[in-house]
Recover the amino acids of this structure.
């Protein structure tokens, strides 16, 4: 299946969960990343069970402090 | 009150824009903007707002200017090293535009003072560097029904969103709760993002354009890539949801801001 990660089309195995995607994409600090699928936030507890579908649009939203 | 000849000249490049005109310039001159954190984000924001003629600028920062700040915090100069940042920023703003009233608070925002502070202003700019402060500012602005601009930066990346009262989504809708201290690296870079925050404040005050509410703008300086990610309210948001569990500001343990390499 094909997913859009931050707007870019990429191919993945079918049946991938959000948790697995975080792993495959080597997302830093996966416990502290907000994930949205098709503009809906996915709660941390739902990530292992949330299976992605072909064409899903995924965004990773990272904590950014900085500013000092 | 009519503009003086000097003000007409100073603000002529604003007034000439039909979206701003003298009406918008008057709104800017009457507006009060609070900038929390006079550092990497707050410094450029304060300078652009002062230059544009925002009538009152509030500055809140506990720190003194350090030599290592000067590489990005352009409101402070070499001779300001050691001075409180709010004092140094006040002097730069006054030199840039003596029309601007500057109110300073040399200290931290905490649960006890956030509401009384934000209530005095029309728009708030979060230029802080740590998550406890960012959540506190969010909660304070949601509770006090004040619009604010959130920004964060890390290395060469930045993010920006604008909260509008009763419209949301708020910062907590996106990030829920602060990460544990040191769980997420924080570090210091800025410039572009602070000036974008100033632009959001100006658009809000003048009442033009589309604000970044409902969008998280992300910026990658290395790729020079800007993206707007749509974000929606969480129905169960602890502060802006219909049944909020946070009804008064709360202090979190302050996370350190060490640059990890
Ligand atoms: Zn919210």
């Amino acid at each position: 299946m094909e997913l859009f990660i931050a707007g870019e089309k990429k191919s993945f195995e079918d049946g991938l969960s959000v948790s697995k995607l975080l792993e495959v994409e080597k997302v830093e600090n996966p416990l502290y990343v907000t994930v949205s699928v098709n503009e809906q936030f996915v709660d941390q507890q739902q990530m292992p069970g949330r299976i992605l579908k072909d064409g899903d649009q995924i965004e990773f939203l990272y904590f950014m402090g900085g500013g000092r | 009150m009519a503009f003086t000849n000097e003000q007409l000249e100073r603000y002529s490049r604003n007034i000439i824009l039909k979206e701003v005109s003298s009406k918008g310039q008057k709104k800017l001159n009457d507006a009060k903007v609070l900038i929390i954190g006079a550092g990497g984000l707050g410094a450029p924001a304060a300078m652009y707002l002062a230059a544009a003629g925002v009538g009152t600028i509030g500055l809140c920062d506990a720190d003194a200017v350090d030599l290592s700040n000067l590489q990005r915090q352009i409101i402070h100069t070499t001779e300001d090293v050691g001075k409180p940042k709010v004092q140094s920023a006040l002097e730069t703003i006054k030199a840039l535009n003596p029309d601007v009233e500057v109110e300073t608070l040399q200290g931290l925002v905490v649960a006890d003072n956030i509401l009384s502070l934000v209530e005095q202003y029309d728009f708030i700019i979060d230029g802080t560097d740590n998550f406890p402060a960012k959540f506190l500012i969010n909660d304070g602005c949601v509770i006090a029904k004040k619009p604010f601009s959130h920004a964060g930066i890390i290395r060469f990346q930045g993010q920006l969103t604008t909260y509008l009262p009763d419209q949301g989504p708020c910062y907590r809708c996106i990030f829920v709760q602060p990460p544990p201290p040191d769980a997420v690296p924080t570090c210091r870079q800025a410039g572009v993002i602070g000036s974008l925050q100033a632009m959001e404040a100006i658009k809000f005050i003048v009442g033009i354009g589309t604000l970044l509410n409902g969008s998280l703008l992300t910026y990658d300086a290395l790729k020079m890539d800007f993206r707007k990610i749509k974000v929606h309210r969480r129905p169960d948001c602890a502060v802006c949801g219909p049944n909020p569990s946070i009804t008064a500001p709360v202090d979190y343990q302050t996370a350190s801001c060490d640059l990890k390499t």
Observations:
- Residues 2-62 of chain A form a domain with the Ubiquitin-like (UB roll) fold (CATH 3.10.20.30).
